[in-house]
């Protein structure tokens, strides 16, 4: 029998300080994160939810027209439980700027922040969003530890082609900033002229042809200014990884009842296990609601055929076919979930039925939270 993910036990456990919602893109991670955060707040926790580029309707659902890099209170949270809820949206570049400003002198920081290569890197480099999501998580956690403003941080991970990008990107970015090419480019600014050997000149000549002279100079100026920060990027990545492995962190993998999404969820569960990261369980989102009758698909199709041949109500026949389609969809999704369970029998699971309409207010988020908690 599949173990059930007890959402309320997870939210009520004061030892749970961070919940990371992860999974492939388009499976409802952002809505799930917001619903978990709201439910936790209304059960007495002091919560901040960090969302990544939420749909406008979700920002409106939380009563905040403009989310930004600063936590803002969500109005309408039931105060009976004594909890609070703040929401914020990751500003990737602003977070990167904050890292630079906190680690460099004002002069050095200004030099870095105005560099064209840095502007491109901080705004669009592959993996920067994932790295900065974890950087912001670290900032929030340090502040929560220092002043007790929050006792639970809920993180919506960035939308990625692959769920694994979230765990790999911080390492990729820190490796890039600490890589051989960057070290080579920084050598002229660091050392004596003798470093400018014929071999080095050959390499920079080739790079000039590829990147163009101005671009290469921007890169060299950037890495020279950033030299003192290279070690800190590696350190920060290591600290973030350790935070994700800590007992106070819980990963909730979110998937849709589709082959690709559940395949990504399986990869993610395996990766979390390999990296000793604490997995709370799987949320299967937007599942087809089960019909309220035991009439099978085959029986419904047979009855529809009889009605048609008897020249009876075409409406009744159409409804029977719709019922048959619904039953087959439910059976298909059940089969997909059973395949996941067969390979991961230890993973607690919660199944959330598809809502009748898009979430557009706190009531909709509450309904999702209740559905996650109400497992058989």
CATH class descriptor of the largest domain:
Alpha Beta
Task: Give the CATH architecture of the largest domain.
Answer: 3-Layer(aba) Sandwich
Q: In what order do the strands lie side by side in the largest sheet?
A: 3-4-2-5-1-6-7-8
Rg measurement, Å: 25 Å
Q: Please work out how many helical segments DSSP would assign.
A: 16
How would a textbook summarize the main sheet? 8 strands, mixed
Percent range of helical residues: 55-70%
Topology, number of strands: 8
Give the rounded overall mean pLDDT: 80
Backbone shape:
elongated
Overview in brief:
The protein is an alpha/beta fold and 376 residues long. It contains 16 helices and 8 strands.
Describe the structure.
With 376 residues, the protein is of the alpha/beta class. It folds into two domains: 7-177 and 237-292 and 337-373, Rossmann fold (3-Layer(aba) Sandwich); 297-330. The chain is built from 16 helices and eight strands. It has helices at residues 7-12, 29-41, 56-61, 92-103, 106-113, 116-124, 128-147, 165-177, 180-190, 198-211, 213-226, 230-245, 259-274, 297-309, 314-343, 362-373; strands at 18-22, 46-51, 72-73, 84-89, 152-156, 249-255, 279-287, 349-353. It has an eight-stranded mixed β-sheet with strand order 3-4-2-5-1-6-7-8, with helices on both faces. The N and C termini lie close together (12 Å).
Summarize this structure as a short list of keywords or feature phrases.
ArsA/GET3_ATPase-like; ATP binding; elongated; ATPase_ArsA/GET3; 16 helices; single chain; P-loop_NTPase; alpha/beta; 376 residues
